[in-house]
Amino acid sequence: MARRVVVTGIGILSSIGRNLPETIDSILQSRSGIGKLQHLDTPHKKEFPFAEVPWSNDQLVELAQLTDSEGYSRNALLGVIAAREAFHHARLPHLPPLRTGLISATTVGGMDRCELYFNDFLTNDSKNIYIDVYDCADSTEKIADILHIRDYVTTISTACSSAANAILLGGRMIRSGQLDRVIAGGTEALTTFHVNGFNALKILDKIPCRPFDANRNGITLGEGAAYLVLEAEEAARAGKREILAELTGYGNACEAFHQTASAPDGKGAFLAMERALQVSGTDPSEIDYINAHGTGTDNNDIAEGVAIERLFGKRIPKVSSTKPLTGHMTSAAGSVEAILSILCLTHRLILPNLNFTTQMPELNFTPVTTLIRDIDVKTVLSNSFGFGGNNTSLIFKKTPI
Amino acid sequence: MVKQKAYINGVGCISPQQTIDNRLFLAEPVSVESTRLKAIDPNYREFVPPEMVRRMGRIIKMGVAAARSCLADAGNFPSPSGEGSGEGPEAIITGTGLGCIEDTEKFLGNMIKNNEEFLTPTSFIQSTHNTVSAQIALLIKCHGYNFTYVHRGFSFETAILDSLVQMENNRAKSVLLGAADELTTNSFQIQNRMGFWRRKPTDNLKLLDHLERGTIAGEGAAFFLLEGKEKPNSYAVLNDVEMLFHPVTTDEITHKIHLFLDRNGLKESDIDLLLLGRNGDIRFDPVYDDVIATAFPEVVSCGFKQLCGEYMTASSFGLWLASKILKEQRIPDTLFLQKKPEALKHILLYNHYRGINHSLILMSQA
Q1: Which chain B residues touch A45 with a CB distance below 8 Å?
Q2: What's the helix, strand, coil split of chain B in %, to 5?
Q3: Is A387–B134 a contact, with Cβ atoms under 8 angstroms apart?
Q4: Over the stretch B107-127, which tens digit does the pLDDT of each residue have?
Q5: Which CATH code, of 3.30.70.1150, 3.40.50.720, 3.40.47.10, 3.40.50.2000, is assigned to A248-397?
Q6: What is the pLDDT of residues A295-310, one digit of tens each?
Q7: A65 pLDDT more than 90
Q8: Which residues in A214-251 are b (16+ Cβ under 10 Å) and which e?
Q9: Are residues B162 and B27 in the same domain?
Q10: pTM summary value
Q11: Which residues of chain A neighbour B356 with C-beta distances below 8 Å?
């Protein structure tokens, strides 16, 4: 009998709040974090809106409560703040006897420092405190050192599905008995590197993103970090921790169609959702809400929408993309949206797909457009898809107390 | 949990040695006087459609070629063009320390030079770390589980652990496991300024002979087809893997080794050959001597990084080497052993990356 995996802690930092209470406050007011760039310097700042975390690196150092902040990229600062919040939210004891792991996700890593100082790194010693922060593992190792995690520490990078995969992996490691507890999530700071990358792909919208809208025209990039504390159910109960939700299912599929585009029939999305339902032992009719990947690109929203229609048939659950709230936080999107999905369970909510006005002719369903409160939500599915056709779906259930 | 044996039924390796041809086994080791070792590029057109070769960055070519060489070695030829009859792996799991740095540097360089204008997306698309895994999936039409680990000296090890978990209870019948890292002029230069490499060119085959500051940079790609069933061409059993992040004392390491061997029903003295990640750097090699003195006083040991250089996924070259040793039941002369092991049943690979990422990989004769 596989072990059950429960969520006992949450930490989140994004454009809509520096912690969980602020995030809840923002979603209850449907307050979007999308606006003008204040901190990242790029010639494109007037051209596109962004969901930037509204604090400077110096302010983030304070929020991170660091005694020694030397050599911290923005990516690492965001990660430390959110991971620490999750750790304390779960009221985890220090140096636990249980086998504890840290699984973090990022794609650009410490590129926010590297893009500024690349030439210095090559030619002089002036910026050497940042010379070792480029790779993806840098922020993860800083978090592991702060939280004293030794047993299992790793970083995964599967583009925009990375943080969802961190949660999937955490769930699998606990189920298979390799670990008892995992802090899983992702962190991503805005960089001119990926702003220009997505701009070169011509998939940034000049106005705030409009997922599942007929006139959608691309992504709004965001930044932030989010981590979940996952535990084997018996460990959580023995520690008398509050159980927020159960991670019952997860699925990963590779579309093997194109390096960046989704297959128009949504094959990868379909397979990922189908596998998650299988692992969960859940019938499609039991899903109350889908937090869609819903980037607002022409290609994604058709593929994902078609896959949802194929899998759920006539009975489509409530669907929304929360990217108009938080922006597309790339490698952190999966854990941010997992947390927003869990908040739907704990706070009896369905979150709105803001900025939607016009029905897509290709789809038969319409996303939820305003916040629904006091609604019974028992089972939620969260989608995250990435470059390389890497598709991941997670299922969370409300746990009876 | 039912422990499912994972047999290594195919290997593919691109390294600074002549390793892409699986019939060869380090008979004529490559020796150069340098501070870096370059992987020997095969004729990539033998492994990748020519129109794709032109577009791919070097790490992608190395990864894809090593993966296809591995599948061919295993007699497993999944192909969209219909060659061969194999079913193909059910999952692709890879590790890379720095990912596609050539493409990353290209996009970054153009972005800085052109003040963020007139950029084409190709190098950005190929800069994401999961490009190697994704391109292999695309080429062999594998819709299964696809994961990329990017954690310094744990990148390959966590990929191994994930592969073994995937195969538990026979959930995945076959997994394509691999690692790839490339060295570029700039990445060499930056790591040189960080004090990673030797100041003076050194004969790589004599790298471990005397210790100084720094080691030799390396690169490469190695892939392994893991299957639940033994076959006539099986190389070895990949038993188990363990990691230890940032240990402070040697006792922590030897304790971890003891627990690791114990859970696999072995004692320290059961190990026939200890393959060590020694790299000739005086700051990092003494740990290996301390561990040997405490835990393995009688066990035969040797290093392997004199052949492949140091990089974040160098342990994948070590796994290739151990696979060949167990299959052929012989140790190549170039590994200069102090004495010959009496048998070649169990090999333990112990590696650490810069004293932070310590890892253990246990393998047995098939």
Answers
A1: none
A2: 35, 20, 40
A3: yes
A4: 999 999 999 999 999 999 999
A5: 3.40.47.10
A6: 999 999 999 999 999 9
A7: yes
A8: eebbbbbbbbbbbbbbbbbbebbeebebebbbbbbbbb
A9: yes
A10: 0.96
A11: 141
